[in-house]
Amino acid sequence: MKTFAPLLLLAATADAHYRFSKLIVNGVQESKEWGYVRQTKNYQSNSGVTDVNSQDMRCFQMRSGTSTASVQAGTKLGFAAESSVTHFGPVSFYMAKVPEGANINTWEASGNVWFKVGEISAPQSGSLGSDERTWPAYNKKTVEFTIPQNIPNGKYLVRVESIALHQAQSAGGAQIYLSCAQVEVSGGGNGTPGPLVAFPGAYNRNDQGLLWSYYPIRTSYKAPGPAVWRG
């Protein structure tokens, strides 16, 4: 039976998709979907992105933005999953500063403008499994990070990304669930966020963080992308 356990897991979770459609500011969740969050292409299917070279890796958006949330540096910001994060894997948060004079509702955030501001991932060592003991975001309805206190004031896109590894035994098998919210930060500082990366471009389909092995059991894991900028 042990030989077939991964196959049974795949069958049980194949249709368990999700989307991030609501922003959470200081613990207060939006009452309706797609207010501060740009509506994504998976608003009906809840499917993920599998091609890391696709333009969908940026915000997966179907429509441009409409509203912008006012937030303070140093406070908690998060996203609510439409059901819950029903696949194991890491969750990362990125931000991109909107240039002065640009319209946040239509800005595409192309090029090297994204920096990582938070990560919910596996422990650095030990036998890694496919449950909540290894993946703290697994089965959670909300995921959050703290906006760096020293981030410069201004308007930003905030990108949440959940990498589902349940079918990632080979390159291209990871499913990436993501969306972008629009915020305006005040009370910040004069930090220099970085390293800056582009979407698409930050990930390679052969990155070890986009692959998973049920057997042999992995003893280390590092999420793809740059280090977290903490200000």
TrEMBL record:
Please state where this protein is localized: Secreted
Sequence ranges assigned to domain Auxiliary Activity family 9 catalytic in this UniProt record: 17-216
TM segments? none
Cofactors required: Cu(2+)
Residues of the signal peptide: 1-16
Gene Ontology terms: cellular component: extracellular region
Q: Which UniProt keywords apply?
A: Carbohydrate metabolism, Cellulose degradation, Copper, Disulfide bond, Metal-binding, Monooxygenase, Oxidoreductase, Polysaccharide degradation, Secreted, Signal
| Top-rank lineage group of the source organism | Eukaryota
Pfam families given in the database record: AA9
In the Enzyme Commission scheme, what number(s) does this protein have?
Answer: 1.14.99.56
Can you name one GO molecular function term for this protein?
Answer: metal ion binding
The answer to whether UniProt assigns keyword Chloroplast to this entry is no
The record's catalysed reaction(s) read: [(1->4)-beta-D-glucosyl]n+m + reduced acceptor + O2 = 4-dehydro-beta-D-glucosyl-[(1->4)-beta-D-glucosyl]n-1 + [(1->4)-beta-D-glucosyl]m + acceptor + H2O
Top-level class of the enzyme under EC nomenclature: oxidoreductase
GO biological process terms, alphabetically, are: cellulose catabolic process
Tell whether Signal is among the UniProt keywords. Answer: yes
Q: Which PANTHER family does this entry report, sorted A to Z?
A: ENDO-BETA-1,4-GLUCANASE D, PUTATIVE (AFU_ORTHOLOGUE AFUA_1G12560)-RELATED
The entry assigns this protein to a family as follows: Belongs to the polysaccharide monooxygenase AA9 family.
* This protein's name: lytic cellulose monooxygenase (C4-dehydrogenating)
